[in-house]
């Protein structure tokens, strides 16, 4: 998975790429004036937050004049992906927001379509995951959570994103690291982050796993308790130890990016890449990323496509090892 070294190298490469790019041509700018964003998840989750933040920044930077966001949730994005590939084919002004979760969901759900059928444009952000519990939970630390998991994993329901996604993978890795069979876990998948938060606030589950940004508002309000983050080290502004600090030898990094539909021209692909580089290089984007505790890890074009290929192979191996894939 992505390490701190990968993040730093990616950021350096991204900075060089941005400086090398010239302005978007008049024809391309006109094509991208009205951007259509496809979010293969329910409103409220990380992909939806990314899309709406992108719209806000792109408008503020006057890189687009308008945008339309379409949400099609379900099964880690595998419900919406066929629609994007087949019905949005050839749309030069369209982007799908997705990421690591979809890579795992495609494998776990044995989906007939693949991310490789889209046109990879840019990896934008990364986020370490958070393990949280309701404020009234008896679990005070991640060690308390693990002790209950060891005692009877079926009695510790944990909610998160769809089956096979980064949240599910993290729970499986945590279980395996402490000798609990992943197949015995009680994992409750939701199509969007908003549903997971509602389940936690309603005490319907024992714990939840997702990107820190999806829980941060409720954590700051004292409604959720943050037990640990899946980073390799403590993060500035986040008052929580890592899993490793608490004896759980696991770290995981979730990433999000954008994809154009199949059937666009090389010039249209280049225009989209330039648009994303201009957005990611703006002060407005930097401010939003910082505010939401995301890590900027821009990677574009062919390099992003190669990363996606490698990442798919890695995730497939993890899911197979955890019993989540054939």
Topology (elements, then pairings):
Layout: H1 4-20, H2 26-31, E1 34-39, H3 46-60, E2 66-71, H4 81-87, E3 94-99, H5 100-108, E4 119-134, H6 142-151, E5 158-160, H7 166-177, E6 187-189, H8 193-201, E7 207-211, H9 212-220, E8 224-229, E9 253-260, H10 266-280, H11 283-291, E10 295-300, H12 301-321
Parallel strand pairs: 1-2, 1-3, 5-6, 5-7
Antiparallel strand pairs: 3-9, 4-7, 4-8, 4-9, 4-10
Which features does this protein show?
10-stranded mixed beta sheet, globular, 20% strand, 326 residues, 12 helices
Tell me about this structure.
By secondary structure, the protein is α/β, with parallel strands linked by helices. The chain is built from 12 helices and 10 strands. It has helices at residues 4-20, 26-31, 46-60, 81-87, 100-108, 142-151, 166-177, 193-201, 212-220, 266-280, 283-291, 301-321; strands spanning 34-39, 66-71, 94-99, 119-134, 158-160, 187-189, 207-211, 224-229, 253-260, 295-300. Strands 1, 2, 3, 4, 5, 6, 7, 8, 9 and 10 form a 10-stranded mixed beta sheet that branches. Strand 1, helix 3 (46-60) and strand 2 form a beta-alpha-beta unit. The longest helix has 21 residues, at 301-321. The protein is globular. The relative contact order is 0.21.
């Amino acid at each position: 998975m992505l390490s701190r070294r990968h993040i730093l190298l990616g950021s350096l490469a991204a900075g060089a790429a941005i400086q090398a790019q010239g302005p978007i041509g008049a024809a391309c700018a006109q094509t991208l004036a009205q951007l259509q964003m496809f979010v293969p998840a329910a409103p409220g989750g990380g992909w939806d937050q990314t899309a709406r933040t992108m719209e806000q920044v792109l408008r503020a930077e006057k890189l687009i004049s308008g945008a339309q966001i379409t949400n099609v949730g379900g099964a880690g994005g595998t419900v919406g992906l066929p629609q994007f590939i087949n019905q949005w084919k050839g749309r030069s002004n369209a982007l799908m927001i997705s990421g690591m979760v979809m890579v795992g969901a495609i494998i776990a759900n044995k989906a007939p379509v693949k991310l490789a059928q889209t046109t990879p444009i840019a990896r934008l952000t990364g986020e370490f995951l958070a393990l949280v519990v309701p404020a009234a939970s008896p679990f005070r630390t991640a060690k308390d959570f693990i002790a209950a998991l060891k005692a009877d994993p079926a009695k510790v329901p944990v909610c998160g994103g769809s089956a096979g996604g980064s949240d599910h993978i993290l729970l499986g890795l945590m279980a395996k690291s402490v000798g609990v069979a992943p197949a015995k876990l009680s994992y409750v998948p939701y199509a969007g982050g908003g549903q997971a938060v509602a389940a936690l606030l309603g005490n319907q589950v024992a714990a939840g796993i997702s990107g820190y940004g999806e829980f941060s508002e409720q954590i700051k309000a004292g409604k959720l308790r943050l037990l640990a983050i899946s980073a390799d080290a403590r993060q500035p502004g986040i008052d929580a130890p890592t899993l490793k600090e608490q004896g759980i030898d696991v770290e995981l990094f979730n990433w999000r990016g954008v994809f154009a539909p199949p059937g666009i021209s090389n010039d249209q692909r280049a225009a989209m890449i330039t648009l994303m580089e201009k957005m990611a290089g703006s002060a407005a984007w930097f401010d939003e990323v910082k505010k939401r505790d995301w890590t900027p890890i821009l990677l574009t074009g062919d390099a992003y496509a190669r990363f996606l290929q490698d990442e798919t192979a890695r995730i497939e191996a993890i899911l197979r090892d955890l019993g989540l894939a054939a």
